[in-house]
Amino acid sequence: xxRIRKLPIGVQNFEVLQNGNFIYVDKTEFIWxxxxxxxxxxLSRPRRFGKSLFLSTLxxxxxGQKELFKGLxxxxxxxxxxxxxxxxxxxxxxxxxxxxxxxRSVRDLEIIINDHLCQWEKxxxxxxxxxDFSRRFAGLIRRACEQTGKQVVVLVDxxxxxxxxxxxxxxxxxxxxxxxxxxxxxxxxxxxxxLRFAFLTGVTKFSKVSIFSDLNNLRDIxxxxxxxxxxxxxxxxxxxxxxxxxxxxGDRQGLSYDKTLARLKQRYDGYLFHxxxxxxxxxxxxxxxxxxxxxxxxxxxxxxxxxxxxYLKTAYYHIPDLDGNVLLNEAxxxxxxxxxxxxxxxxxxxxxxTIKDYDREYKLYRLGFPNDExxxxxxxxxxxxxxxxxxxxxxxxxxxFTKAVKQGDVDGFxxxxxxxxxxxxxxxxxxxxxxxxxxxYQAAVxxxxxxxxxxxxxxxxxxxxxxxxTVETPDxxxxxxxxxxxxxxxxxxxxxxKDKQYADRYTGSGKRVIAIGASFDEEKRTLKExxxxx
Length: 534
Known about the structure:
Blueprint: H1 14-19, H2 28-37, E1 40-44, H3 51-62, H4 73-80, E2 93-97, H5 106-124, H6 133-148, E3 152-157, H7 161-166, H8 171-190, E4 195-202, H9 208-211, E5 219-220, H10 235-241, H11 243-253, H12 257-268, H13 283-292, H14 306-314, E6 326-329, H15 330-334, H16 344-349, E7 354-359, E8 364-368, H17 372-386, H18 391-407, H19 410-421, H20 428-432, H21 434-452, E9 459-462, E10 468-472, E11 476-484, H22 490-499, E12 512-521, E13 526-533
Parallel strand pairs: 1-4, 1-5, 2-3, 3-4, 11-12
Antiparallel strand pairs: 6-8, 7-8, 9-10, 10-11, 12-13
Helix pairs in contact: 2-4, 5-6, 6-8, 11-12, 17-21, 18-19, 18-21
């Protein structure tokens, strides 16, 4: 009888995973490298990317649970290097998990830290002079080392969750959290002589200067080449570990094995944490695909945090640039502050953008959406901020527009477009600034055309600084030029298409070329009129 293959959806405990005979993508070679190279580490990765499971695997390793690692890479590495060190030792492990709470008040953070300290103090005791969290933590590390004769291992999961949950709508609480955590994490450095190893994970590199300023012996491996694949699933791992699941998915979707792989790559691959290394797939999405046998949106099911959308709109960011034209230097990737001055680093750290290319001469990273799941999930969440369409109506509105485009019904899809972007919201700044008002229209139109790509394969180009789109379908090419009524009419827009000979590049394509000039009514905030040719 064939053994049932168990997929570890929601399993974040390594011991449970191994004892339950779940499929495991072996990441233990990274553990060997970490424990033999350095001592205090930090890793930033998006949510649901395997950080908790990796930390749990570290815990099992430092507890000396050798039986859990049978047949894995680290077992073989330990055996080959046995003469160099005492292997499979049991160390005192202090594991602090911030996942298990919601953070709304200062008391919420105090409770979870106190609960962990109390659990450890039952084992290692406490002293009356240890009155605050930092002193208690330092005392515990020292006593654990003295009582066991072994240096201590400190593991912190999602160190930044309290900060992330309060940074937008509770700034005073957030600042108090920052001060508490700064002192607490600073203990890791002051207790260096008692520590064997420390590893902290989180989504953001939350103010390394302010939160970790007392922890300057921290090694940030988030963008190191050797650790680019520490979380997530590489294509090699996908093919090696999930061949039966890929075949079953393909059979369900009516696709060959190779085409199934191509669909998975397009939708879930593309996260890059070093420009010279292989990209990785989102593990949470892949596991859900294999269980449900549907190419759905799983990582993005909870939606884009509202504050990210607000930040982009407040910053008047040119939305089309998000799809592969964001430029940041290394410092820009790492710095994040809770304001709207620069929302891009948090988009990268949270997994909405990833590295697409690196210019070594100018030391600039080019960022963009990693894959289709993120691209369309993010753009759908942006739509209500730039149009009058609510989030529950976005999909239907875009679908109706797309059907009309496919049918070549110009008046039909322009009426749909008019309905989608009617009532484009302004604020006090855009009311007074013509360029920003035009940018709002451009963002709205871009979102509609970009989201259309989820239904039909098209090429969409929007020129920076003006609303000018080309949409190419299997048998038609649409050329769009949009004007604000204060700058010209629909006829003027059509004339520009002809005068600048936009259609010339498509001569010989065999496709019908349709030019559409349109104008926006700035008072009613919608399309006023359009004219076509072709």
